[in-house]
Amino acid sequence: MAHSALSGKSNDKETSSLVVSFGEMLIDFVPTETGVSLAEAPAFKKAPGGAPANVAVGISRLGGSSAFIGKVGADEFGYMLADILKKNDVDTSGMRFDSNARTALAFVTLRADGEREFLFFRNPSADMLLHESELDISLMKQAKILHYGSISLIEEPCRSAHLAALSIAKTSGAILSYDPNLRLALWPSAEAAQKGINSIWDQADIIKISEEEITFLTGGDDPNDDNVVLKKLFHPNLKLLIVTEGSKGCRYYTKEFRGRVAGVKVKPVDTTGAGDAFVSGFLYSIASDHSIIQDEKRLRKALYFANVCGAITVTERGAIPALPTKEDVLQFLLEAATI
Hints:
alpha/beta; nine-stranded mixed β-sheet; UDP-N-acetylmuramoyl-L-alanine:D-glutamate ligase
């Protein structure tokens, strides 16, 4: 056992509250200078990325139990990504390696305001080629929560693998957590994106969505209007809908109650991974106790914890390197309380 320290650590983790993330993992190339276009960037620094993988690492960093299911290329980048997950104590037994396709790449520019622009290289990349027959069914059956996005719905065979994963997890009693994570550049058209994202909407127990995504999915409606959210986005099977509002915090909607949890003010350096850090913070809180969703006071506490996770992440560059540990979050809360 080369990683005895790591394997020992994972045994302490609560296997009863395993969160499995399904989807893409890729390499982000981030300019060494902010506020420049891709063409103007003098150099790029590589960073591991892919929302579902970020969430898996985020949960593990906080001390939770997490696994990642997805496909990368049987290439240097693919092995590097698997290694990063292992080093962060994420179970990689559900990862697959494709010798005929490359690991996906994304060039991400950070504009002067800290927001991002994307240029993707995937034609097709390994993550799009995960087959249903390659799914680790026993791992998914152990999941208390299955977390996923919409990028894995764009192309076959990955779309069928994704739908099968949802079905297996649901049948095994897992909570389904959906972050659409809209990346319009990857879809054939805006209509295809809307249709694809909505195609699995009513299966989710928890959905996390941004204000921009509300506007997109509703065809331009006001994302701040509670009636828009409740009439157009809240479905009968949904236990919780969360709307993230960046530094302003988040709103939450359940069948019983709704409200807003204030954000945390920090100086943003890079917004990459903030939403994923938020999701990891929240799923970490509810993994071992799903009843938090029914108790408004505890739900608000879990959402504030998630807001802090997101805020800490924007103070550093890159997604995975910036994801906080539980100590980071507690330290932040302690300092915030003394100010």
